[in-house]
Amino acid sequence: MEKVIIIGNGGAGKSTLARKLGKAINKKVYHLDALYWKPGWEMTAKDEWKAVLTEIMSEDSWIMDGNYGSTIEMRAEAADTIIFLDYSTARCLFGIVKRRIMYHGKSRPDMNEGCQEKLDWEFLKWVSEYRRKKAPVIIDLLEKFKFTGKETHHFTHPRDADKFIAEQLVKGGH
């Protein structure tokens, strides 16, 4: 497990899992939100974004957490491990509300400085519709890559991810 992508709904805990896994297997973690969003919630231009990802993917090992549908295929191609956090909508909505309260008036650790935590209708709607609109596409992606020698994980509850981290700690002797 050298090149890992972690994808899933907002509020599912992708960044938290990435940090835990990075520590467990001693890999550098890249939080895509922190790389994509410039201060003041300014988006990175598409060509610049692909260049940033291409540079990271050329490294020997990494963990990337985040969705970014326009580049998910190229990141999945480069990865040897794909982890999908497919948690209930209620759990994810709770996660984004909790995050908003925890980081009120400041940027969270997996976000660029100058991007204070916010919660707007557009994001609530995106999280609410994720399992219906986005998850089937991710499940198809997992199926596609399952037969290419890539390690794929489809976690439907946080305890699945916790068990996975515990297994990695045992393998790594931590």
Short note summarizing the structure:
With 174 residues, the chain is of the alpha/beta class. The chain has helices spanning 14-25, 32-36, 46-57, 72-78, 89-102, 121-133, 135-146, 158-172; strands spanning 3-8, 29-31, 37-38, 42-43, 62-65, 81-85, 151-155. The protein is globular.
Q: Could you explain how this protein is built, in words?
A:
With 174 residues, this protein is α/β, with parallel strands linked by helices. It is built from eight helices and seven strands. It has one domain (3-172): 3-Layer(aba) Sandwich (Rossmann fold), CATH 3.40.50. Strands 2-5-1-6-7 form a five-stranded parallel beta sheet, sandwiched between helices. α1 (14-25) packs parallel to α8 (158-172) and α5 (89-102) runs antiparallel to α6 (121-133). The longest helix has 15 residues, at 158-172. The two termini are 16 Å apart. The mean pLDDT is 93.
Summary keywords:
single chain; 174 residues; Rossmann fold; five-stranded parallel β-sheet; 52% helix; globular
CATH homologous superfamily title: P-loop containing nucleotide triphosphate hydrolases
Number of strands: 7
Q: Tell me roughly what share of residues is in helical segments.
A: 40-55%
SSE string, helix = H, strand = E? EHEHEEHEHEHHHEH
CATH fold assignment: Rossmann fold
Characterize the largest beta sheet: strand count, sense, and whether it forms a barrel.
5 strands, parallel
Span of the ends, CA to CA: 16 Å
